[in-house]
Design goal:
The structure is a single chain. This protein is α/β, with parallel strands linked by helices. It has 20 helices and 14 strands. The strands form five sheets. A four-stranded antiparallel β-sheet has the order 2-3-1-4, with helices on one face. Strands 9-8-11-10 form a four-stranded mixed β-sheet. It has a two-stranded parallel ribbon with strand order 5-14. The longest helix has 21 residues. The N terminus is likely disordered. Bound molecules: fe (ii) ion. Fe (ii) ion binds next to α14. Its EC number is 1.14.16.1. One of its GO terms (molecular function) is phenylalanine 4-monooxygenase activity.
């Protein structure tokens, strides 16, 4: 946690009241960080209350004042410069209590010698009687610098799960524009089938059940060949979380070599365990759009299969990669939280930060390795790029013991976020986490330290994103 951040989450006046013990600013900074998660839990019910507001639907069409979407109150950001002395924060915050102005975030940064800049977000706006009285009192009290800040403009991002409908159709290709070197390029039957499946995906919307797909004999045969090749390797190299989930999915989602499981069944199963779900998509999405979906505990999932002439090769994600590589991992809570952490950090993020997050995703969700509690000396895979690729799974998990093996680094999102990677050859570098929980905690710390325009949380009941400070969302671009 950086020293510049003291409280960066939803809280309420009552919590601030308890925090603001008469001590110096530097002292409070440490105290607040340590007690932060407790505050969050204590005020969970308040957040639930206003997120359940009837205004959720009504405000969804508003792009202008994001702080007013989701039934959230309008907020204002304030910058105050305070001299560091014992009790000063307490003295200032008492004006907020006096005028009953609810604080949603406080962040401190050292400014000049012995001075701190405090960024305070509060509910209300200039012109509200109590807000005006508060600002007047702060000025009279002698706060040296007192500025009402403009709302920061951020890239468009979805606020409600229904807005994933806009993203899902913003594919980089239509799922049918095959490259000349694609194994199915000259196969008209295959191309027609791809068009049909792309149409299914495009017709899907957030509140519709996922359509049942009748897979052809040829498609099932291709699936069986991949299954047969992978099955023994999973037993040897997949992490136990994957294997546990696979067993459950054989039972509940009809996972087997002789038929392709239905996305609808898998999604329902995952939702019942971890509240994660699958959502059909017709082709590749941009990193931003794809990661944004994870914030809603939603995984965009293709519905087509690779060409049967090369069952062990695919130049793009297909159902063998999605359903055999990714889906079982979404039955694990730590893995889901980990994925959602990346998704939440991607909302409204700068292009540079999206790039960093996409690299972290690549080296974890796609190509992550972890230790196994039962066999800690062995390398196990949890990344879908490995779990769906027979050659690379063995290569990665054999580690540096083989002569020309890959480099294995300790999982560190900071390092991963800067690491380049090839997309057409085996990875030269893999990251190894102590456990999925370890991967999650490190990812969370990395995301907290990103210079994000706001902090976001997802309310799975209202399927809405809550943000902790006022921002302006740019218009959606199709
Ligand atoms: Fe993938």
């Amino acid at each position: 946690m950086k020293a510049s951040r003291i409280v960066n989450r939803v809280t309420a006046v009552s919590a601030i009241r308890r925090l603001a013990k008469p001590t110096s600013i530097a002292g409070i900074r440490t105290w607040n960080v340590q007690n932060f998660s407790t505050q969050l839990q204590e005020h969970e019910h308040e957040w639930q209350e206003f997120s359940n507001s009837e205004t959720v639907e009504k405000n969804l069409n508003s792009n202008i004042l994001v702080s007013n979407v989701s039934g959230e109150p309008i907020r204002t950001s304030l910058l105050m410069e305070l001299t560091d002395r014992v009790g000063v924060l307490h003295d200032v915050l008492r004006f907020f209590w006096k005028y009953d102005v609810n604080i949603s975030r406080i962040e401190s940064r050292p400014s000049n010698l012995q001075k701190f800049d405090f960024f305070v977000d509060f509910e209300g706006q200039i012109g509200d009687e109590n807000v005006d009285k508060l600002l007047k009192s702060l000025k009279e009290f002698g706060v040296q610098k007192l500025l009402v800040l403009d709302e920061k403009e951020v890239d468009w991002f979805p606020r409600h799960i229904s807005e994933l409908d806009l993203i899902a159709n913003r594919t980089l290709d239509a799922g049918i524009d095959l490259e000349a070197d694609h194994p199915g390029f000259q196969d008209d039957v295959y191309r027609k089938r791809r068009e049909e499946l792309a149409r299914f995906s495009k017709e899907h919307s957030w509140n519709k059940p996922i359509a049942h797909i009748e897979y052809t004999k040829d498609e099932v045969h291709c699936w069986s060949m991949v299954w047969d090749k992978m099955e023994q390797l999973w037993q040897k190299y997949a992490c136990h979380e994957y294997l546990d989930a696979l067993e459950l999915m054989k039972k509940h989602c009809n996972y087997n070599r002789d038929s392709i499981p239905q996305q609808a069944d898998i999604s329902k199963f995952l939702e019942s365990r971890t509240k994660f779900k699958l959502r059909p998509v017709s082709g590749l999405l941009s990193s931003r759009d794809f990661l944004n979906g994870l914030a809603f505990r939603t995984f965009f999932c293709t519905q087509y299969i690779r060409h049967s002439s090369r069952p062990l090769y695919t130049p793009e994600p297909d159902i063998c990669h999605e359903l055999l590589g990714h889906a079982p991992m979404f039955a694990n809570q730590d893995f889901c939280d980990f994925s959602q952490e990346i998704g939440l950090a991607s909302l409204g993020a700068s292009d540079a930060d999206i790039e960093k997050l996409a690299r972290c995703y690549w080296f974890s969700v796609e190509f992550g390795l972890c230790k196994d509690r039962n066999t800690p000396s062995e390398l196990k895979a949890y990344g879908a790029g490995l779990l769906s690729s027979f050659g690379e799974l063995e290569y990665a998990c054999s580690g540096p013991v083989v002569e020309v093996g890959p480099t294995i680094l300790e999982w560190d999102p900071e390092v991963a976020s800067k690491q380049d990677f090839p997309i057409t050859t085996y990875q030269p570098v893999y990251f190894l986490a102590e456990s999925l929980q370890d991967a999650k905690m490190k990812m969370r710390r990395f995301c907290e330290d990103l210079p994000r325009p706001f902090f976001a949380r997802y309310n799975s009941q209202t399927q809405t994103i809550f943000i902790d400070r006022p921002v302006q969302r740019k218009d959606f671009e199709d």
